[in-house]
Design goal:
Pfam families: TP_methylase
CATH superfamily of the largest domain: Tetrapyrrole methylase, C-terminal domain
Enzyme class: transferase
Shape: globular
Largest sheet: 5 strands, parallel
Number of helices: 12
Radius of gyration: 20 Å
GO molecular function, one term: uroporphyrin-III C-methyltransferase activity
Oligomer: single chain
Order of helices and strands: HEHEHEHEHEHEHEHEEHEHHH
CATH class of the largest domain: Alpha Beta
Keywords: Cobalamin biosynthesis, Methyltransferase, Porphyrin biosynthesis, S-adenosyl-L-methionine, Transferase
Protein name: uroporphyrinogen-III C-methyltransferase
Length: about 280
């Protein structure tokens, strides 16, 4: 194993690695992510990074929290970006660790541009984004050949905290059989109404996956029209991924994690070939 890590690039003093930690399970960390954790002097991490991942940090590494949570006091993005510059200029080996993937609604691009502007060397290390890995842990495939040949990823709020006004809801409703939404729980009522008004069926399956790929994971299956009411009734809280589309129905068959721990939310359903017709 050590021979494997010795073949990987080193996190050099005075540089920054922007690393995705995946949706939660430490087992989903990439080898480069673990390499960075083993070598970093300072780890600047998000709120969504699982604490179990941080336990892989080398002894003596400084952990700096830089998480943002909606509706709560949070550091400004410009301050986080400039902190990375400051640490690198001090000769530190800096790991900027983000939940999911740094370039998927993770503001990694903004931080990388700041590092570039200040001539700080950096590396991008992709991670498994929650919109794919988190749904897989819930037994919901993002694509299935009998359901969809396209998927849309969108964010539920913009920099102002409101539902983005530049989203073409009619275009998405008509063109994307599966819609995966990040940071959408707060505005799920408005988002659901937008999609229904744009032509989606009120009875279309929708699922909330909260705390994906962690021991606290919970899944709520509902419909587009009932999403707001059911989420409130269940007391769901972020972080959550929301998925809309017929792939949600596959969870009855594919809830592998629930059955693995003998706590299935739904009894095993029919095989996918029976649900959609075996066209092999």
């Amino acid at each position: 194993m050590e021979a494997l890590f010795s073949s990987l690039p080193d996190l050099e003093p005075g540089s920054v690695w922007l690393v995705g930690a995946g949706p939660g399970d430490p087992g989903l960390l990439t080898l480069l992510a673990v390499q960075a954790l083993r070598q970093a002097d300072v780890i600047v991490h998000d709120a969504l990074v699982n604490a179990e991942c941080l336990k892989l940090a080398r002894p003596g590494a400084l952990l700096e929290f830089a998480g943002k949570r909606g509706g709560k006091p949070s550091p400004k993005q410009c301050d986080i970006s400039l902190r990375l510059v400051e640490l690198a200029r001090a000769g530190k080996r800096v790991l900027r660790l983000k939940g999911g993937d740094p370039f998927v609604f993770g503001r990694g691009g903004e931080e990388a541009l700041t590092l570039l502007e200040h001539d700080v060397p950096f590396r991008i290390v992709p991670g498994i984004t929650a919109g794919i890995g988190g749904l897989a842990y819930a037994g919901i495939p993002v694509t299935h050949r009998e359901v969809n040949h396209a998927v849309t990823f969108l964010t539920g709020h913009d920099s102002s905290g409101l539902v983005p006004d530049r989203i073409n809801w009619r275009g998405i409703a008509a063109g994307s059989p599966v819609i995966v939404m990040y940071m959408a729980m707060k505005h799920i009522g408005q988002i659901s109404r937008n999609l229904i008004e744009a032509g989606r069926s009120p009875d279309e399956p929708l699922a909330f996956v909260c705390n994906a790929a962690t021991p606290q994971q919970s899944v709520l299956e509902t419909t587009l029209s009932r999403a707001e009411v059911d989420a409130a009734r269940a007391g769901l809280e972020p972080p959550a991924i929301v998925v809309v589309g017929e792939v949600v129905r596959l969870r009855g068959s594919l809830d592998w994690l629930g059955r693995l721990h003998d706590r299935s939310a739904a009894a095993p359903g029919p095989a996918a070939a029976c649900l959609f017709g075996d066209t092999a």
